[in-house]
Amino acid sequence: MRSLAELQRDFAAALLGADTDVAARTALLQHDIASGAFSVAERLQVYRHNVQANYLNALQLAFPATRRLVGAEFFAQQARAAQPRFPSTRGDLHHAGAGFVAALHADFADDPRLHWLPDVAQLEWAWQQTQVAPDPATHLDLGALQRVAPEHYARLSFIAHPALRLLRSRWPVFTIWKANRGDTDPDGTIDLDRGGECVVIGRRQDLEQARLCSQAEHRWLETLAGGGALGDAVDAALEIDSGFTPDRPLQLSVAEGLWIGFEVLTPPRPAASASAAAR
Amino acid sequence: MTPAPGTNPSRGAVPARAGIGLRAPHHAQILEQRPPIAWLEAHSENYFAAGGMQPRILEQLREDYPLALHGVGLSLGSADPLDLEHVAALKRLIDRVDPAIVSEHLCWGAIGGRHLNDLLPMPYEIGALRHIASRIVEFQERIGRQVLVENVSSYLRFTNETHAEWEFLVEVSRTSDCLLLVDVNNIFVNARNHGFDPLDYLDAIPAERVGEIHLAGHTVKTIDTRELRIDTHSTPVCDEVWALYAHALRRFGPVPTLIEWDADLPELSRLLAEAQHADAIAG
């Protein structure tokens, strides 16, 4: 008699395998499952259907705009195609969206009809992740921030809110997503050649918000979110836009609750002098 | 009001009346109106997020309603090692909302790190029995409390089985010292699908091991002239299941009972009407 692990492996393979593999995988279980009024294949199909439906339901909840953009049937086809390649890796199905986005990138990034789709799904997934990100352990001390002496500004470093998500796309993803989030039909058409968009998503007091930002601001935020100093973030932004100034983006990011703490980084130590090295 | 065995008497014990499953489309209405509901049961995984609105909603409802956490994704019967990340997320939620009851399923749902996110049947034989019982012991030790384990609906049986489903269930409960969440609809579905008398099943369960009862609706799938009952939680409780419920209460005495409805979710008032019906049967 086979072990429980072997039985479960074959069972899972029959439920999760691609449509073309079902018959072969079902045959492996022919002697393990009683048939009776229904064949082994019919019985397994009930579970296969449930497993696919549960995965699809989770994705439908996480990707309403993506689904709306491509239609329910096409969306379901993509979910079925993604599941064998990117099966859920957790008992909590709320994580399955990451694999779905990866599948869309693999399948459509080079498809001239739908190459914008993976980025829209990625934005929608980032929005979803913002909602479930951990609550911050601390809150930004505005008073202390205001007391930082101007000569230390360049060495300011911020701690990002766990919900902060930044995206950059060569497509107008924010415009597409926003037009397809509601229940009403979007007005007009969106010109895919209007240029790429950068998006910042944050959460303040349990309320998520997403907005457009410039490429320079995106680079600035990305540097800061990675723990970089304000001076370095401004330098990085200036490489994209020589007119970039951090005053307004800083005010805005603080008001939006993107940061939960800060510190003034210690200046790099001067190189050891020859005499010090000699001692 | 007497707390059910295995429940946490420290705070908001679940009464021996009918409550309802908490579902996201009803969050806003329950939060705003705080209607009289005997108790609520939440799917644990829906509130696993480490922050944001979802766990906070549960925390708020916990102030006004006795609460049970019902897991659907732990995969107690899997041959994989116990998913400690999943257990840790559940423990964090338990610490946060202090539920009166924590329950899981007598099933498996993952192997080799791949999750099927469904309640898959165990082979009812001694090796699988020892395995799942030892996992329940480990799980109870890790979360520091006794859990309830629920019987699941099934659409197939394995050829290597040596136990009737109810023998397996009761023996797992005895061996691991967990309590039972008896899903009367699942018993009826399996009785029809596998051809046994549901009364034999109910009569084999020791009353002192029952901590909760589930009631739900199911659908009938017809292929040619053959019928298979599918546990969809998408319809009202059927008459046969109400009759079995009455029998179960005569056997077990008053037990916290839950109306489960997941797919094609109706208005909250419809769920509360089902709960009232259950209470009327309980008398």
Walk me through what this model shows:
By secondary structure, chain A is mainly α. Chain A is 50% helix and 11% strand. In chain A, the strands form two sheets. A three-stranded antiparallel β-sheet of chain A has the order 2-3-4. In chain A, strand 3 and strand 4 form a beta hairpin. In chain A, helix 5 packs across helix 6 (97-108) and helix 7 crosses helix 9. Chain A is elongated, with a radius of gyration of 25 Å. Mean pLDDT of chain A is 93; it is low at 274-279. In chain B, helix 4 packs parallel to helix 5. With 283 residues, chain B is α/β, with parallel strands linked by helices. The longest helix of chain B has 18 residues, at 126-143. The radius of gyration of chain B is 18 Å and the shape is globular. Chain B starts with 17 loop residues before the first strand and ends with a helix. At the A-B interface, helix 1 and helix 3 of A face helix 2, helix 3, strand 5, strand 6 and helix 4 of B.
Short description:
Chain A is mainly alpha-helical and 279 residues long.
Rg of chain A (CA only):
25 Å
Strand-pairing-aware structural class of chain B: alpha/beta
Biggest sheet features of chain A = 3 strands, antiparallel
- DSSP, total strands of chain B: 12
Cross-sheet strand order for the largest sheet of chain A:
2-3-4
Mean pLDDT across residues of chain A: 93
Q: Element order, helices and strands of chain A?
A: HHHHHHHHEEHEEHHHEH
Count of β-strands of chain A? 5
Beta-strand residue percentage of chain B: 15-25%
Mean pLDDT level of chain B: 95
**Shape designation of chain A:** elongated
CA-atom Rg of chain B in angstroms = 18 Å
Q: Which range best describes the helical content of chain A: under 10%, 10-25%, 25-40%, 40-55%, 55-70% or over 70%?
A: 40-55%
Strand order of the largest sheet of chain B: 1-2-3-4-7-8-9-12
Q: Encode the helix/strand succession of chain B as letters.
A: EHEHEHEEEHEHEHHEEEHEH
